[in-house]
Design a protein that fits this description.
alpha/beta; Rossmann fold; 2 domains; 8 helices; 7 strands; 14% strand; globular; binds nicotinamide-adenine-dinucleotide
Amino acid sequence: MTQLALVTGSTSGIGLGIAMSLAEAGYQLILNGFGEPEVIDQALADVGAVSSESPLYIGTDLTQPRAIELALSEIFESEGSVSVLVNNAGMQFTAPVDEFPVDKWDQIIALNLSAAFHTIRLCLPGMKAQNFGRIINIASVHGLVASVNKPAYVAAKHGLIGLTKATALETAEMNITCNAICPGWTHTPLIQTQIENRASDLNISIEDGGRALLAEKQPSKEFVTTDQLGALTRFLCTDAASQITGASLPVDGGWTAQ
Ligand code: NAD
């Protein structure tokens, strides 16, 4: 039977890249995320084009624990256990800590950290029963180091790495692995506002705004690609990676080596 892979936040950016890569590897995908109907249809068509089985879609708002419970119980009922869980959905908001809006703090912690706790706690019993599971949490370089004006994001991503380690220890003898991938700058809608702000602050083009962000932090001066993150996720699902667990793997052009 085809194994199920759930990738949260896969209507866009990194999640879509990971979903494409896992579909190519033969998994049946469950996509999730927001977007206009045509954006979601396009994501389903793109993943469907490289899949042996049609992808499924859940529009669950992952900041809502009860909605996560309902969506996952429906999946388990109709499709069975999830073999690969990729916690990727995330959001960003930038402001200094003493000016950070409280509602934005709550939303970022709910989506970038607590949602992963809920999907993991709900998917693990099925993984344990089938003696196989792969959990990949898309953290960030900001799970390893901080930057100014990102207190909620940095706190959530550091927390996600803690959750990754704790889950890995509890599942180490069960053929279940749990790892975090820590990307540096990856050109997706999530960083578009930061690129535009940098361009406007420096009165330069959007393209040069992207270059300025890279020059400040990412020694390779190149964006990470969603294909690269998809390929690493796919590798972590193989037998060759069965002894990699509890790891936080930077894919950051040297950012955290500095
Ligand atoms: P993106 O904005 O392109 O995609 C985010 C996805 O999450 C979308 O599918 C969106 O619909 C979904 N989403 C947003 N709110 C949601 C909610 N409440 N419930 C369900 N889904 C929701 O962003 P991206 O750059 O592809 O980011 C994906 C992950 O990678 C995030 O966790 C982000 O923190 C992380 N990351 C991104 C970068 C980068 O440079 N782009 C770097 C490091 C880490």
